[in-house]
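Run log, item B.
One chain of 280 residues. Sequence copied directly from the ordering sheet:
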Amino acid sequence: MNLKVSQEELDTLTLKPETLELAANLVKINGYVIIENAVPKDKVSELFTSFKKAMDWFLEKHGHDIYLKKKGFNEGTNHLGIFLPFEAPFNDSLVIEHPFAMAIIDKVLGPEYSVTLFSSNTSLPGGQKTQPVHADYGARFGDQCQVSLPITDLVFNIPLVDVHDGNGPMEIWPGGTHLMPDSWYGPNAPKPEDLAQYMQSMKVHMPAGSILIRDVRMWHRGTPNRGNEIRPNIALIYSSVDRDNRIQIPQETYDNMSPRAQRLFRWQKIGFPAIEPTHE
């Protein structure tokens, strides 16, 4: 069930203590939380217009080599991950440091996390099959750790269109698949694809401008887009331990960011030019 926060919370961008407690607990116990309509419609429209231009440019330049071959993990699914340039409107404060998200992530990860992914994932029309069921991250200790570890990495998504059954929603297996022993996320564990068919799942429906926060370990998969338009999500990862530094941020851009945003991106490539849209 998606959270519908009050108009007062939307106007002030401040979650009430009871809402914050509920949202954080849902991440911990279910593996995810969705807050509807957290990003204003005009901002979503601006993001979608810019994203569509970036996607069109990418497909024209690289589509034959990367997308049209349909090889590898995304073969036949028409799913495409694109690293985004760190520039407006993609690096808007409501994207990189949304107050709702920061409050929830603070409560789940503690104060010392940072951004380790600045990207997108899109379901394009014409997909013929689902992705394999998977978790985004593997085991931290291979086959050695037989206990569940604390949450260390959270994915943050903003859908730029309404997400429904017809345009390739993500299918998830909540309520426990993020809480298994660490070894269960390694290559020698039982395969999620074999078990998931006997387990309860749900497809994630949400209005454009919602925010989705999920544990990277929660099992999920992309589903085919049966419609005629792209279904894009902005995608960031907030990590309490990882210091992956693939994000390039021009010095002037970094200097003009808020102190909190600067801290969130402190491990990244500061002083490098913003990239072109690039395949993950």
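Observations after the first pass:
- Residues 3 and 30 are 13 Å apart (CA to CA).
- The domain at 2-279 is CATH 2.60.120.620 (Jelly Rolls).
Flagged for discussion on Thursday.
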